[in-house]
Specification:
Layout (H helix, E strand, L loop, with lengths): L7 H9 L3 E6 L6 E4 L1 H7 L3 H4 L14 H12 L5 E9 L5 E13 L4 E8 L7 H24 L2 E3 L9 H15 L6
Length: 186
């Protein structure tokens, strides 16, 4: 069903990470292959409920027009190494949150994209210092991921430059949050 077997080093890395992570296959519709405990805590979903499904299940019927366009551009275009955007997601219990989504491609040394790597962070009600701590942890995560992937003959595409646009992304997230707080939003 899936195009690749997940290397053991990557499985261990996900298990040990303190931030929400997801790994998707690069086959049609990008089904999730792996999520970690922080992801399960953030979303309320179990592995059985998300593995094999596209992560868009978290969007439910939210419009998310601009974020979806950014994600689509990342997935369809071969030139974009990574993407970071805020997107309205829903926990299993139906509560909405603004997810600051980071996605990158994990490539074999041959250049073939093997997996899609993603990290999620709830910016809905967070203090700026929490976002700064998350950005620092994501930076450390990406720095540590490089050697882990190298053991499996892969590299992470993109760089921390995507993280550098946090101020604009958080401003976008705050506007989205204002929409969530509007009367009539679930």
């Amino acid at each position: 069903m899936y195009s690749q077997e997940i290397p053991g080093e990557l499985l261990k890395y996900f298990k040990d990470s303190h931030i929400a992570l997801a790994l998707a296959d690069v086959t049609e519709d990008n089904p999730l292959l792996l999520v970690n405990e922080p992801f399960r805590t953030l979303t309320g979903y179990t592995d059985e409920e998300v593995i094999g499904r596209n992560c868009r299940l978290l969007q439910r019927d939210a419009e998310n027009r601009q974020p979806r366009a950014k994600i689509r551009g990342f997935l369809e275009g071969g030139r974009q190494a990574s993407v970071r955007t805020s997107i309205v997601n829903f926990r299993k219990d139906g509560k909405p949150f603004v997810n600051l989504l980071y996605m990158s491609k994990l490539k074999a040394l041959s250049g073939e994209v093997r997996f899609l790597f993603a990290s999620q962070f709830d910016v809905s009600r967070s203090q700026p210092e929490l976002l700064s701590a998350y950005d620092a942890e994501l930076g450390r995560t990406l720095a540590k991921l490089g050697p882990t992937l190298a053991e499996s003959g892969m590299v992470i595409e993109g760089s921390l430059m995507t993280i550098a646009n946090t101020v604009a992304t958080v401003a976008q997230a705050k506007l989205t949050l204002a929409d969530l707080d509007a009367p009539g939003f679930p």
